[in-house]
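Technical annex, item 7. During the second reporting period the consortium partners agreed on a shared format for inverse folding records so that results from different sites could be compared directly. Each record opens with the tokenized structure and is followed by the designed sequence. A conforming record, contributed by the partner at site C, is shown below for reference.
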């Protein structure tokens, strides 16, 4: 009977000892773990990144801005609205400012013809004399065939001059004062430059440019 109790007690003791050892294992393991902690891992990653970037130079914002090259915009040249040697532009202006063009053309033609006919076509008579002909002034007969007017300065701005070139194609017949009494005939073109100071059509300046 005593032997059975002793055996039972020994078994219980072994069982409790095993339970105690199992309970102490986590504590023992926790106190003796020498592996890397999370802080160690974060530090290692940080060092690896720093070593990886050590060979690179990261430019500053100022250096990046300085390196950006913005191409210069090409200069846009807008042709002048006055005296533009551009047929398309002139056509556009004449359409857009038709009334202004027509007014200048009408005034310029009137003053050019007035200058041309002044003193019984004195400009024609003077030209014929330069040819060495002694013209009978009373025999002079001029017939205008065609008149062309080209506006050279529209003068859209306030107090701007307005100008036009007037070409007068004409036929002239004349006789000499002495010698052969036959009539002579020439086809000529007189060109006038007509300008209006500060756009005032009452202040005209008419100049004979050529006659031939």
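Designed sequence (site C submission):
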């Amino acid at each position: 009977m005593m032997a059975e109790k002793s055996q039972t007690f020994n078994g219980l003791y072994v069982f409790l000892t095993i339970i105690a050892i199992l309970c102490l294992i986590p504590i023992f393991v926790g106190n003796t773990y020498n592996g890397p902690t999370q802080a160690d891992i974060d530090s290692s990653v940080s060092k690896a990144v720093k070593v990886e970037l050590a060979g690179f130079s990261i430019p500053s914002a100022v250096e990046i801005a300085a390196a950006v090259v913005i191409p210069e915009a090409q200069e846009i040249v807008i042709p002048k609205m006055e005296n533009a040697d551009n047929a398309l532009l002139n056509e556009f202006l004449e359409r857009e400012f038709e009334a202004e063009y027509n007014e200048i053309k009408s005034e310029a033609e009137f003053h050019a013809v007035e200058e041309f006919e002044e003193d019984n076509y004195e400009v024609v008579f003077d030209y014929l004399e330069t040819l060495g002909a002694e013209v009978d002034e009373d025999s002079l007969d001029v017939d205008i065939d065609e008149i062309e007017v080209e506006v050279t300065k529209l003068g859209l701005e306030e107090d701007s001059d307005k100008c036009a070139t007037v070409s007068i194609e004409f036929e002239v017949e004349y006789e000499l004062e002495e010698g052969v009494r036959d009539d002579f005939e020439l086809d000529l073109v007189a060109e006038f430059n007509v300008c209006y100071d500060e756009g005032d059509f009452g202040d005209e300046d008419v100049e004979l440019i050529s006659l031939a």
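The radius of gyration is 55 Å. Confidence is low (pLDDT under 50) at residues 76-81. All partners now use this format for quarterly exchanges.
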